[in-house]
Prior knowledge:
The chain is α/β, with parallel strands linked by helices. Helices cover about 35% and strands about 25% of the residues.
Amino acid sequence: xxxxxxxxxxxxxxxxxxxxxxxxxxxxxxxxxxxxxxxxxxxxxxxxxxxxxxxxxxxxxxxxxxxxxxxxxxxxxxxxxxxxxxxxxxxxxxxxxxxxxxxxxxxxxxxxxxxxxxxxxxxxxxxxxxxxxxxxxxxxxxxxxxxxxxxxxxxxxxxxxxxxxxxxxxxxxxxxxxxxxxxxxxxxxxxxxxxxxxxxxxxxxxxxxxxxxxxxxxxxxxxxxxxxxxxxxxxxxxxxxxxxxxxxxxxxxxxxxxxxxxxxxxxxxxxxxxxxxxxxxxx
Length: 283
């Protein structure tokens, strides 16, 4: 069972929700927390540890100039501009390569050799007997986020309950993260910008046929802008987290509020029960 905690943009509090949710659920059952925000993973702030690390590689082409016919087939095929065929030379731009493998198929002279390229790593921490943290971390300067996200999801695919902290936004990394998830919980704010980003994320998830639920963060008691949208689109609001500066300071200092405060432990436990019920289709 894979449940994604996401948001239409960064800074809405999805990592706060994911970390506290994973912690309280692990008090009752085996939970895996997966950080797929691979460009800026920060679940580890709340769960410091010494991880086991595994490198992630993708396959890219290396041109064998002595075999190349300079026919241009590989350059014509590559829509990302990673290969440019000149009169007597082939230019390869590895950062543009998406490792689709098409160039190897279309080359008539078999003049491309498959070589591995490091794109990041997956870090694993066994925090307790019932809580494991798996973090994807993209190599600095690289752009192939989906390869690292895919490696994280592959590693956790057989775990009984996985809570995934998604990358912000709704581009390819988000889609790679939510694909085939049982439920996506969108964390939003009661502002016009929050509503806009929420609506964009909901539209994407509807295309992917992934069920949606909502958590309102930084609620100031006037949440009608989000409540109206959720009512119109039949989206359940599972929790409201108040705009509380004392709470914000604790979170920003790296404190896990469900571990520090019994009241918040109970609230996130109730949220966890609701999320699991929605993921199972019990509501």
